[in-house]
Amino acid sequence: MAFHSKKPTPEQRKQVEAMAAYGVPADEICKVVGMTGKTLRKHFRIELDNAEITANAAVAGFLFNNAKSGNVAAQIFWLKTRARWKEPAQSHEHSGAVGSYDLTKVSDADLKRLETILGAAVPRANTGGDTSQE
Q: Domain residue spans in the chain?
């Protein structure tokens, strides 16, 4: 005896379309509506095909309205994705020496001066003893 499927109800159509719009996989939709994947695709092809498009359009509408009402994050996102705006390329330049320097070639006077500069810039750790130099 052949199986005669029932005609889908409007409630089932809404349910399938909503679940597909939310990204629920078809095999899980089948469990909820109680049918096989083949039957689901046969009776709900339009809902399955259009659900994602409809959901994306609704979200895009909210984003667009937020951007128009002054939401800066929405405006930036819209311009980067829809208007193809992008951040300008950043140029990073470094100054100063790169690498190591042989301090054996520095005079004693220059080392003393460097020690004074670094001593003022970097606080000494408290070792518990008298740290005064007076």
A: 10-81
